[in-house]
Amino acid sequence: MRQKAAVFCHNGLGDAIVSLVISNNLHQNGWSVDTYHNGIQGLQHWFPHLPIHTYPDIDKIGDILEKYNQLIVFDNETSTFILQLIKVAKQREPEKIKVIYAYPTQGIRLKPYYKDAELDPSRPILENLKVFCEDILRLDKTTKSNGIIAPLHIQFRKHPKRVILHISSSRPGKNWSIEKYVKLALHLRQQEFEPIFVAGGGKERNAYLWLEEKKFHLPTFSSLDDLACYIYESGYLIGNDSGLGHLASCMGIPTITISRRKSVAKFWKPNWTLGKIVVPHFLIPNIRGFRLRDRKWKFFISVNKVIKAFNQLLQNEKL
């Protein structure tokens, strides 16, 4: 009988896309794997061999412990279910569960179950997860791939000059200035690229409707799958530190990620294909209690800095 495993992801889209690396590695080594996340069911047919489910009810934790031989749980302090799952599993069957703290901070070494995974905050998350599969799970075959398979009806980079500008994220504080995105878009047009603005749905997108009055394209998407297909057929993605960068990168779409802090950007950099990160210069003071670099990071990342990164990306593609 095949061994059964469950991987419980953190909340974000990027968290799920990255966590599927573990699911795919287990699958490649003969395990039956279920992945749990509350937001990516619409991408199930991109991962046909990796069943994706929403979090179960908290009263199903006993059934989970009975059903699976191995639990991989990404720490999530915002989820009562995850906190209870870790607590109960560590009490009843500690040998079954591995807890992963996917945070780019040295403080993770003080977490109670840090040695379950021993992630290194100085290394990219994909490298960390591959090492976890090798050294902790002891899998014979390992890969950084999350197993994504594009639907047959779409064409990879069909529109090579289309550049998606992802202007939103899970938190407004992670978003680069929209005024700078507009200047970037105008520059891309001058280079004969086609900039496309992408924001979230509903009210989030409505806040940017004025872009259409300035003759920019701000498409709507009926589903996450619809958006994924659009990204797959585009040439590049430039955006804030968020999940769409990971989705694009695992598809093979080159990315530029704009982030306020280098340590976070290096750890969470979309790293499946060519990509660049753009952060404030390290010489800008970031002293505890003052945090000029963190508070004013949007000011310290110029449009020219992003343009330079994009041109470097174009050059790297030619190598």
Question: Which helices and strands occur, and which strands form pairs?
Answer:
Elements (H helix, E strand, L loop, with lengths): L3 E5 L4 H16 L3 E5 L15 E2 L7 H7 L2 E5 L5 H13 L4 E4 L24 H12 L22 E8 L11 H13 L3 E5 L4 H4 L3 H4 L10 H9 L1 E7 L2 H9 L3 E4 L3 H7 L6 E4 L13 H4 L1 H4 L2 H16 L1
Parallel strand pairs: 1-2, 1-4, 2-3, 4-5, 6-7, 6-8, 8-9, 9-10
Descriptive account of the structure:
The chain has helices at 13-28, 61-67, 80-92, 125-136, 178-190, 203-206, 210-213, 224-232, 243-251, 262-268, 292-295, 297-300, 303-318; strands at 4-8, 32-36, 52-53, 70-74, 97-100, 159-166, 194-198, 234-240, 255-258, 275-278. It is an alpha/beta fold and 319 residues long. It has two domains: 4-136, Rossmann fold; 159-318, 3-Layer(aba) Sandwich (Rossmann fold), CATH 3.40.50.2000. It has a five-stranded parallel beta sheet, sandwiched between helices. Strands 7-6-8-9-10 form a five-stranded parallel beta sheet, with helices on both faces. Helix 1 (13-28) runs parallel beside helix 4 (125-136) and helix 5 packs across helix 13.
